[in-house]
From TrEMBL:
<dbReference type="InterPro" id="IPR048020">
    <property type="entry name" value="Transpos_IS3"/>
</dbReference>
<dbReference type="InterPro" id="IPR050900">
    <property type="entry name" value="Transposase_IS3/IS150/IS904"/>
</dbReference>
<feature type="domain" description="Integrase catalytic">
    <location>
        <begin position="1"/>
        <end position="149"/>
    </location>
</feature>
<dbReference type="GO" id="GO:0003676">
    <property type="term" value="F:nucleic acid binding"/>
</dbReference>
<protein>
    <submittedName>
        <fullName>IS3 family transposase</fullName>
    </submittedName>
</protein>
<dbReference type="GO" id="GO:0015074">
    <property type="term" value="P:DNA integration"/>
</dbReference>
<dbReference type="InterPro" id="IPR001584">
    <property type="entry name" value="Integrase_cat-core"/>
</dbReference>
<dbReference type="InterPro" id="IPR012337">
    <property type="entry name" value="RNaseH-like_sf"/>
</dbReference>
<dbReference type="Pfam" id="PF13333">
    <property type="entry name" value="rve_2"/>
</dbReference>
<dbReference type="Pfam" id="PF00665">
    <property type="entry name" value="rve"/>
</dbReference>
<dbReference type="InterPro" id="IPR036397">
    <property type="entry name" value="RNaseH_sf"/>
</dbReference>
Length: 155
């Protein structure tokens, strides 16, 4: 299966507090199932007592009945950007900008598996654990969360 000269789609769920990638999935088509599967992964990776806001653009996948049902199932409250206004989703837009610049645009992929491996290496091996963020006072997403949860347990 060659993905050369074609598109693949990456669905990423970021934690707004730490900028950490908490779930991601790659497929050859942008469908509601790509989003619902990523939501399910995020819900496995995070526990929360209160409903959590899930912010996205107004793409048809995100506004579909299947995604609305998945959000309800996982107690996620939908929040949508204004139409044609990417600044409402600036955190995700910036993430994709840097992922493309730092990893994806400098490579040519032969298979979907190659893309998945590159995404895994970037997000899990670099972005969450080694890439500092100005928003996080130059801590990585993992460091920001570790500091927050460790400091919270001291009191």
């Amino acid at each position: 299966m060659s993905v050369k000269r074609s598109f693949v789609y990456l669905c990423v769920i970021l934690d707004l507090f730490s900028r950490k990638v908490i779930a991601w999935k790659v497929k050859q088509r942008m469908t509601a199932s790509l989003v619902t599967e990523t939501i399910a992964l995020a819900s496995q990776n995070r526990t929360y007592d209160e409903p959590v806001i899930f912010h996205s653009d107004q793409g048809s996948q995100y506004t579909s009945q299947a995604v609305r049902q998945a959000l309800d199932k996982h107690r996620l409250v939908p929040s949508f950007s204004k139409k044609a206004y990417p600044w409402d989703n600036a955190v995700n837009e910036a993430f994709f900008k840097y992922m493309k610049k730092e990893e994806l645009n400098r490579r040519i992929f032969q298979t979907l598996g190659d893309v998945e491996l590159a995404c895994f290496e970037y997000m899990e091996g670099f972005y969450n654990s080694k890439r500092p963020h100005g928003f996080n006072d130059m801590l990585t997403p993992d460091e920001k969360e570790n500091y927050f949860f460790h400091a919270s347990s001291l009191f």
